[in-house]
């Protein structure tokens, strides 16, 4: 959501920041799971329940955020809703350039063919990228970090 609602010039930074905090959360979970902190048998339920607090905060606050402007404009075709969401997220000002960028992106996506999974596997131009993604995903599943 953060990557999609951010202005185009900050989108890469927003996506990188969210990945950083995701990794930081994994590290904090591993550290707090040490026996000396919350990893003992009596504190284990507290450690397992600690992931519920951020989820609860997100569940309570997300309904108050507007839908993402690119979604409103590209998927729903609601230009007024897009302008309203942009003003709510980024404040008052001239945001026509961002709306024009979203419209250009929509035009680009209109001319782009969306491949099915079978077409993607058969396409020789994507074969090495597909091999890399499958290899990385498989090794992430087998390395044990998800179990931790």
TrEMBL record:
PROSITE patterns attached to this UniProt entry: MFS
Gene Ontology cellular-component annotations: plasma membrane
Annotated Major facilitator superfamily (MFS) profile domain residues: 1-148
Origin: domain of life: Eukaryota
Membrane topology type: Multi-pass membrane protein
UniProt xrefs under InterPro entries: GLUT, MFS_dom, MFS_sugar_transport-like, MFS_trans_sf
Annotated signal peptide: none
GO biological process, one term: D-glucose import
Protein name: GTR5 protein
Organism name: Loxia curvirostra (Red crossbill)
């Amino acid at each position: 959501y953060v990557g999609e609602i951010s202005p185009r010039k900050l989108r890469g930074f927003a996506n990188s920041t969210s990945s950083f905090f995701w990794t930081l959360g994994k590290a904090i979970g591993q550290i707090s799971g040490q026996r000396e902190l919350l990893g003992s048998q009596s504190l284990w339920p507290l450690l397992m329940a600690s992931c519920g607090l951020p989820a609860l905060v997100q569940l309570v606050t997300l309904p108050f955020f507007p839908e993402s402007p690119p979604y409103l404009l590209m998927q729903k075709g609601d230009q007024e809703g897009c302008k309203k969401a942009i003003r709510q997220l980024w404040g008052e000002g001239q945001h026509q350039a961002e709306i024009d960028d979203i419209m250009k992106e929509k035009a680009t996506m209109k001319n782009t063919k969306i491949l099915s999974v079978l077409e993607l596997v058969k396409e020789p131009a994507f074969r090495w990228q597909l091999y890399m993604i499958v290899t990385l995903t498989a090794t992430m599943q087998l390395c044990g970090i998800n179990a931790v």
